[in-house]
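To illustrate this point, what follows is a protein record of this kind.

___
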Amino acid sequence: MDITQFILRHRLDDPRGLALLSGRYPEVNMPYALDQIAGWQAARDKLPSWAAVDGIVYPPRVSMEQCSSEAAAAYKAVVVSRLLSSLGGGEGGGDVSLSRETSLTDLTGGFGVDFSFLAPLFDRAVYVERDGALCEMAAHNMRCLGRDNVTVTHSDAESVLRSMEATTVVYMDPARRDSSGARTYAIGDCSPDVTLLLDELLARSLFVVLKLSPMLDWHKALCDLRHTVTQLHIVAVDGECKELLFVLARKPSLDGCVEVNCVDIRRSTGSRSVYAFSHCPDGARVEAAVPAQPCPSLDDVLDAGELDTPLYLCEPNATVMKAGCFDELSMSFGVSAVSPNSHLFLSLTRAEGFPGRVMSVRAVATMNRRLLRAALAGVERANITVRNFPLRAEELRRRLRLKDGGDTYIFATTTAAGSHVLLVCGRVP
C-alpha cells in the first residue's frame, strides 16, 4: 500500500490510534501520513473547500491551528474586492505607476490560505515565503486549487520588497512569535516589523492589507502605522475575535478618520453582520443619544420592586467589545448603558439590528434571598454571564444552585449606584 492509499483509507480514523499501529506499516512514512490525516480532518471544519479537493498537502498540526479559517479568508476577499472596485479605471496615481493589470504580492505567504482566496481577484499574484518547505507545499496546493495566475517565490519579505515592481495590493501577516516560540502582539515585535518597512510598502503599492493579532491595542496600532490606515476590520468567527485587519493607503482620507468595521461571522449559517463607525484622530468622544423614552435605571427598578414596562438587555458581540465603541452604540440605537463599566445596555424596544444579543428582561433582583426566590421561581437551569461583578460565573452558579443551560439567561453586573444585580432574561420571541 502506498502512502496516498494509506491516507485515503484511514483519513477518518483517529491519528493517535494510528500512531500506535505504525509498526504494521513499515513502508509508510507515518509522521507525514498522520500530518495529512489530521490536517484533512481539521480542514473539514476550518477549510471545507480545501478539504473537498483531492491532493491538497497539509502542514504539521501547529501550522494548521495558526492558519486562517475559510470564513475569515473569504471576508478578506470581500475587503480586497472592494478596494479594487474603488480604483475605477485602475490607474494608481501619485508616485505609484500601475497598468490596468492588477497584481497581488503576499510577502508572508505561510500555508497560503488567505493567498488562495485573494489570488483569483487579480491578474497576477505572487506568493513570497522564506520557508522552502512551505513554498513547495504552496506551489503544489495552488495547482490543486486551480490558481494558475500564481508565482511562488522562495525569499524573505524585505529582499522582495526592495526589488519588486509596483503592485496593486500588498498583503502581510507578520509572524507573531519570537525566536524562542513565545507569542508576540506588538507590531514592532512581529517578523517582519512592518513599521520599518512602511515607507517602502506604500511607495510600491496602492494598498497594504495587514493582518494582526486580536490582542493588539488598535488605537496604538494606528499611531504605530503613522496614521496611514483608512480601514480597520475587527473580525470574529463564531463569537470569537480572531484578527484585526488594517487597510493602509498612501493617501488616507482628508479628515484622517478611519472606517472601523466590527464583523461577526457565523459559519453554521454563513451569515455575516457588520457594524461600522468612524474613528477620528482628534479623540473626541461621541455624545450619546438620549432615547425618546429614557430607560429606567436598574436602581429605579429595584426601588419599584417590579418592571412597569417591557425592558430589553443588549449585549454587544466580541468585535464591538474589542472596538470599545460604546458611545457610538448608544448614539446609533438609542440604548442606555447599565453602568460605565458593565458594557451592557438597556432598551425599551427590541433594538433591531443591534450588533450582539438582545434579551427580554423578565426580572431584576439583588442577591437578597427573598428577591432571588421570586426572580428565579421555577428556574432550574440558566446560562450565566458576569460583567463587572464580584463573583465568577461558576461561583455564582453554585450559590444560586442552578445547572448550566436551558432557556434562561442571567446577567450579573453592578449598577451605576454600586448595587450588585442579576438580570433574569429570556430570548426575544
